[in-house]
From TrEMBL:
InterPro entries the record matches: DinB-like, DinB/YfiT-like
Pfam families: DinB_2
Protein name (database record): DinB family protein
Protein source organism: Pontibacter aquaedesilientis
Domain DinB-like: 24-174
Top-level taxon in the UniProt lineage: Bacteria
Length: 188
């Protein structure tokens, strides 16, 4: 797949995700952002906190990998490792299978506030900058240690795609929570 087309698609999707959070969630009352449809499901802020936990790890790892693998003439295609394909298939928004997250990535019953939303927007700004910088990087370089098992590495391109698709999956989840809020008049 052509890397520039893929990066442009990811930039558009990440920009739309940022806009969704600003327009759909930022105006909401904190009580609605914290509403859980069921005790074992996540609130809107818990969905965002889950994504923040991934961004805290992967954004710096991506920044380091992109900086150290830029500046050459690289083949402008993205190829996928077995691990990359498996990871992407797992987080695709159209994959209806519910996945169990690692305990440290599970925000269920965390004490969250509006700063969770602001942190997500900050991470999203960073991700958009990384996607832009990635245009000059070797996207096929295995340089990103997997968060839960650092001996395994993902390629730069597939990690960027993983981040954007993972975010899309959980933002869709958060939008479903918003649709089922008890008091839709206050949902903004």
């Amino acid at each position: 797949m052509n890397a520039m087309n893929t990066l442009e698609q990811l930039i558009r999707l990440a920009s739309n995700q940022k806009h969704t959070v600003i327009s759909s969630f930022a105006p909401m009352d904190l009580s609605l952002l914290l509403h859980k449809p069921a005790p074992d499901s996540w609130s809107i802020l818990e969905c965002l906190e889950h994504l923040n936990r991934y961004s805290r790890y992967y954004n710096p790892a991506l920044a380091k990998a992109i900086a150290s693998n830029s500046g050459g003439n690289f083949l402008q295609t993205i190829s996928y490792s077995w691990l990359g394909k498996k990871s992407l298939d797992m987080v695709r928004p159209d994959n209806g299978k519910k996945n169990t997250t690692l305990k440290r990535m599970n925000p269920n019953d965390s004490q969250l506030g509006r700063q969770t939303l602001e942190e997500f927007l900050d991470h999203q700004t960073e991700l958009l900058q990384l996607l832009d910088k990635a245009k000059g990087a070797n996207l096929n370089k295995k340089a990103i240690p997997v968060e839960f098992f650092k001996l395994l590495k993902l390629r730069i391109g597939e990690t960027l795609e993983f981040m954007v698709l993972h975010q899309e999956r959980h933002l869709q989840q958060a939008l479903r929570v918003k649709q089922h809020l008890p008091d839709k008049q206050n949902a903004a």
